[in-house]
Write a structure and sequence with these properties.
Blueprint lengths: L3 E8 L1 E5 L2 E6 L6 H13 L6 E5 L2 E7 L2 E6 L6 E4 L3 E4 L6 E9 L14 E4 L2 E8 L5 H11 L17
Parallel strand pairs: 3-9, 9-11
Antiparallel strand pairs: 1-5, 2-3, 2-4, 5-6, 6-9, 7-8, 10-11
Length: 165
């Protein structure tokens, strides 16, 4: 029996922050690329130790030995769309292990989220999840999650959150 699930391409962005990847999902226009660039910029300004683009717009995900890996779609490697500016090239990492999933424009985002909203399952892997309401800026919440250690709530039930890919 193989420990690897075949790769799937989804609409999302991913940034390596420190040693782990943040997978950013959400509908078109929700700000996935903007959040990815904001994380990279936060590292440049010293708010984060390290952040580098993995992928923007489309990512390839696969499960390997109980971890969710994320890679850039080959045709888009190193490219990011900056709204109002266009496509730009940035240094990128070829792969990351996802440790946090951020869902932008999340309909279940709440000031005090229920434990069920703090976890998501992707390809059988349960991961910590941050849901961000459409009217809120995501960067401060993402930095807070990373600074305090994104983790699954104790005994939290998990509901798979699926976004169109």
């Amino acid at each position: 029996m193989s420990s690897t699930i075949a790769s799937t391409t989804i609409h999302a962005s991913a940034v390596l922050v420190g040693a782990s990847a943040v997978l950013i999902r959400g509908p078109s226009g929700a700000g996935k690329s903007q959040l990815a660039f904001a994380l990279i910029d936060a590292a440049r300004s010293g708010r984060l130790r390290f952040a580098r683009l993995i992928a923007d717009d489309r990512v390839v995900i696969e499960t390997h030995h109980g971890r969710l890996l994320v890679r850039p779609a080959p045709a888009l490697a190193g490219l990011i769309e900056m709204r109002g500016i266009g496509i730009r090239r940035l240094p990128f990492e070829p792969m990351g292990v996802v440790s946090l999933v951020v869902d932008l424009a999340a309909s279940d985002a709440a000031r005090m989220p229920e434990p069920i909203a703090a976890a998501t399952e992707i390809n059988g892997i349960v991961l910590p999840r941050l849901g961000v309401a459409p009217e809120h800026e995501a960067l401060p919440a993402v930095i807070a999650c990373l600074a305090t250690g994104a983790r699954l709530p104790a005994q939290a039930p998990v509901v798979a959150m699926h976004h169109p890919s």
